[in-house]
Design brief:
- It is flat and about 80 Å long.
- The protein is α+β, with helices and mostly antiparallel strands and 457 residues long.
- The termini are far apart.
- The protein has 17 helices and 14 strands.
- Helix 4 runs antiparallel to helix 13, helix 12 packs antiparallel against helix 13 and helix 15 runs antiparallel to helix 17.
- Strands 9-11-12-14-13 form a 5-stranded mixed β-sheet, with helices on one face. The protein has a 4-stranded antiparallel β-sheet with strand order 1-4-3-2. Strands 5-7-6 form a 3-stranded antiparallel β-sheet.
- 49% of the residues lie in helices and 15% in strands.
- Among the domains are: 87 residues, no CATH class; 73 residues; 125 residues, Heat Shock Protein 90.
- Keywords: Cell membrane, Kinase, Membrane, Phosphoprotein, Signal, Transferase, Transmembrane, Transmembrane helix, Two-component regulatory system.
Length: 457
Amino acid sequence: MPRLFALFLIALSLPARADVAALQASLREAHPQAETAVAALQQLDAALLRPDSLYPALDQFPLSELQALYRQRGQCRQPWPALPAELLRFERALCGGQALPTRWFASHLIHPLGGSYAWHYLQRHPEAASTLQPYLHLRERPAAFAGIGRLGDDNLAALLSGERWLLDGGALWWRDGAFWRRYGAGQWRPLAEAAGLELSPLADGDACPQPLGRVCARPLPPSPWWWRTLAGFSLLAAAGVLAYGWRQRRRLERERRFVLQMLTHELRTPIAGLGNVVEEFRAGFDRLPEDARQGFGRLADGVLRLRQLADASRHFLAADSRLEAPQPLPLAEWLDSVAERHGATYCLDQDRNLNLPAYWLGLCLDNLLRNARQHGRPPVRVTAVWRSRRLRLAVSDGGALPRYRLSLLRRELGLGAGMGLGLAIVRRVMKRLGGRLALEGPPTTFVLELPCDDIAD
């Protein structure tokens, strides 16, 4: 009964003139500030579109190896660090001032330090700018494609995932058939008002009567007398329908959800600011002092972890979120980078190339290692075993628990503790991936089990 009555009130409050179709028709007739063909974007490699391609590849190379590469870039002298052959060829060409053929960049897109190989090459060879444009990241040519490269990380990721409406910096982006069109605030706001709509960015967890991708379309408020009448009627109806017991049952759930939504929302601005700082340091890396170069890797790693935390919280709140598709992953190299970040050791019976969801599996393993380091006792170890098309990752430490039942542990910790929230995120992500989280011991051992395929099979 309360839900039916609430729907009735919402239907009464919607003005008849609110019309998204009318807004679309008006936008088609208006002349956009800029537009670009969707096919032109689809021709680019996905690596040249993703925001994370601009950050150091800490998930593929150990931090110490990237730091050695930073130092060698500035010194250009023997001995060279142990690097992949093609990367070593590129760095030697930069130090020696040698030219590389354009076709080389077609098969070498993203540099381990972040950004495209073409961008790094143009810092020494600006005369090649006209021929290397197709191999630059979208952010490295912000004037191209109607300025899509200037979109924020969240909006750019939403565009790549198929969203059709975006609001960024006051500009409205709309995909109309085969074109992305950009409209300034002075263009789209009068058209939206004429259609009876108010457009605003849609944050995760926000209630919206008519979501348009990352944009919320709300009807304009009705006339004052009607609004006052409806508000008074709503208050009287709510006082009679909403019971005390129902409020009590829902209160705790709302409070927990609000706290997580607030944390996710408030983290976005500082994370974006730190991302911009990292980008500025990367662009002027050759001019940084030696001490600043050594600290740059730690700064980039911290920004990456903050971004993972915000993404994990957003995923934890979204019931319909979609996880990334598995990708080929050399298991030993990936475990090297994870173990180095946490100061742990690992044991691997046999190295394999597996199809794994690298980002979400890495987030789960990071949470377990962080919990073991903060709440357990050394030594912290990771054991990786692949059998019968299932990967088993076991994180153990020297501590002990009163009971080794995961359900009891979650009930004792709840979501109020850092470890409780981390385990809740890991459990939910593993369930989405088709795997599971288990607890064994003593010694205290958290186990991730996930079905996956060996590329060799």
